[in-house]
Amino acid sequence: MAEATLPRTGGGGPPAAPAAAHEPFTGSVWVLMIITLSLTNFMEVLDISIANVSLNNIAGSLGVSVNETTWAITSYAVANAIAVPLAGWLGRRFGAVKVFTGAVIGFTIASWVCGMSGSLAMLITGRVIQGLFAGLMIPLSQALMLNNSPPAKRNMALAAWSMTVTVGPVVGPLLGGWITDNYHWSWIFYINIPAGILCSIAVWRLLGPRDNPAAKLPVDLPGILLLVLWVGSLQVMLDKGNELDWFESNTIIGLGLVALIGFVCFLTWEITEKNPIVDIQLFRFRNFRVGMIALCLGYCLFFTNVVLLPLIFQTQYGYTATWSGRITAPLGVGAVLFSPIVGRLMGKVDSRLLASCGFLIFAICSFWRTGYTTTSTMWMLTLPQFLQGVGIATFFAPLVNISTGAIPPERMASASGFQNFGRMMMGSFGASLGVTFWDHRAALHRTQMVEALPLSGDRLNDGLSALQQAGVSGEAAYAMIDRQLSIQAYVLAANDIFLLSGIIFVALMGVIWFARRPKPGGGGGH
Q: Which of 140, 146, 270, 320 sits a CA distance of 20 to 30 A from 436?
C-alpha cells in the first residue's frame, strides 16, 4: 500500500514540517552514536529485571514485607508500558532528540531517587518516574538510530540495538544478585547515574543539531486517559494474577473488566479521532502487521523461557541464584557473538529467511529441553542457552527490519513505540501465564504419579527401609519421597511448556513468509 493512500498520519495528527536534510553519520561518529543509543536502551532493559533478585534485601532494609516490595517491580512495568506508545507523539510534538535527551536525564535522576529511598513509598515513586522516562527511551533510541544511519549500515545498527533488548533480561538478575550480595541493593540503581550523564551529553552533542522541528499538534486527552486506564489495569492484572490466584480473585476480575472495556473504548476512539495519540493506521502496512504478529508471539515464548528457566534451576535442580545465572549467561554470549554477523548478512540475505532460521533455532532448543530430567548435568542445561543466543541474533533484528522497512522516517518513532509496546505486553503475558501454566501442569503430573504410586509393596518398602537405615525417620522418609514427586512433577510440567513452545516456533516460521521481502537497507515491503 503506497503511503499516499494513508490520509492520516496518526500518532499526533498532521506531520511536522520537514526538517533540514542531514547526511547520515559515518565512520567513528556513527559508531559512537550506536554505542550511546544502545547503552541507553540497555540501561532501560536492564532495570526491568535487575531489581527482581533484590526484593528480600530491599524488604529488610525498608522494614516491609517481600510482597509489598513487589510493587517496586509492578509500578515500573505499568509506567513503562503506558509511556512506550506515547513516544511517537511526544517526539513529533516537541522534537525526538529533545524528548529522548530529557528522558535519559529524567531516568538518571529517578535512579538516584530509587537508590536514596528510605521508605517503600519513595522507592515506588522513583520507580514510577523511572518507568515513565524509560518507556520513552526504548522506541526513540531505535528511531533515532535508524534515521541517522546510512542505508547500508541500518542492519548493523538494528543488530546492535536488538542485542541490548534480548541480553538485558538475562544479565539483569545476574548483575543484580552480584551487586546485592557484595555491596548494597541501592547500587543496582546508582550504576545508571554515570552512564546516564555520559549518554545524555553525547546524544545532545551528536543529534541535537539535527532534531526534527516541533509541531503544534492537538492533544488527544481522551486517548491518553483511556490508554493509561486499560494498559495500567492490564499490567497490574498480569503482575498480580498468579499471586492472587487469577480469576478466583475479585480484584483480578475487576482489573480484567476495566482493561477490556478500556481497550475497546480506546481502540474505537483512536480509529475515529482525527489526531490520535497512537498511530493505529500503521497496521495498514502489510509487513508491519505480519512482523508485529511474529515478533510479539516469538518474544512472548522467548521471555516465558527466560523467566521460567532460572526458577526451574533454583527450585527443582537445587542451584543457587549465582549458579543459575551462570547457566543462563551463555544466552547473552551467543547473542553478542552472532549479532554483528547477522547484521552483515541482513544486507545480503532475505530477512524472512534469517527470521525463519531464528525461529528454527528456538524450536530446536525448546524440543531439546523436553529431554531435561532431574539428573541432567550442568553442561546439558547450558548448551541450549548458547544455541538460543545464536537464535536471538537471527530473530529480533530481521523481524524489526521486516516490520519497519517500509515506514517513513517521520513515523518511525510511532512504529518503534508500537513494536516495543506489543513486545513488552506479550512478554508480561508470557511471564505471568507461563508460571501459572507451569504450576497447574505440575499439579496434574503430581496427581497422576501419586495415583500410580503403590501405597504398599516391595519397591516402596525397600525405599523406605533404605532411608530409615540411613538414619531418616519414618515421617522424614515420606517427606523426602513427597519432595521427589514434586520435583519430578515440575520438571515434567516445564517439559510440557518447552514442547508447546517448540510447536509454536515451528508455526511462526511459516507466518513470517506472509510478509513481502524488504529491500536491502530498508524500504519496500509495504
A: 320
CA distance 355 to 432: 26
**pLDDT tens across 240-294, in order?**
787 777 878 888 899 999 999 999 998 888 888 877 877 788 888 888 889 889 9
Which phi and psi (to 5°) does residue 124 adopt? -65, -40
Q: How far is CA 52 from CA 70, 131, 167, in A?
A: 8, 15, 16
Q: Cell digits for 425?
A: 505486553
Query: Going by C-beta distance under 8 Å and a sequence separation of 6 or more, which residues neighbour residue 54?
Result: 176, 177, 179, 180, 185, 188
Q: Scanning the structure block, which residue is given the C-alpha cell 525498608?
A: 62
- Single pTM value for the model: 0.76
Which residues, in sequence order, are CB contacts of 117 under 8 Å at separation 6+? 62, 123, 126, 186
**Higher pLDDT pick, 436 / 253:** 253
- Cβ distance 431 to 305 under 8 Å? no
CA distance 409 to 38: 19
8 Å CB contact between 16 and 215:
yes
Specify the residue for cell string 494513508: 6
Q: 240: which residues sit within 8 A by CB, 6+ positions away? A: 74, 251, 252, 255
Residue ranges of the alpha helices (H) in 453-473?
Answer: 458-469
Give per-residue pLDDT as tens, 143-190. 888 888 888 787 788 777 777 777 776 777 777 777 777 788 888 889
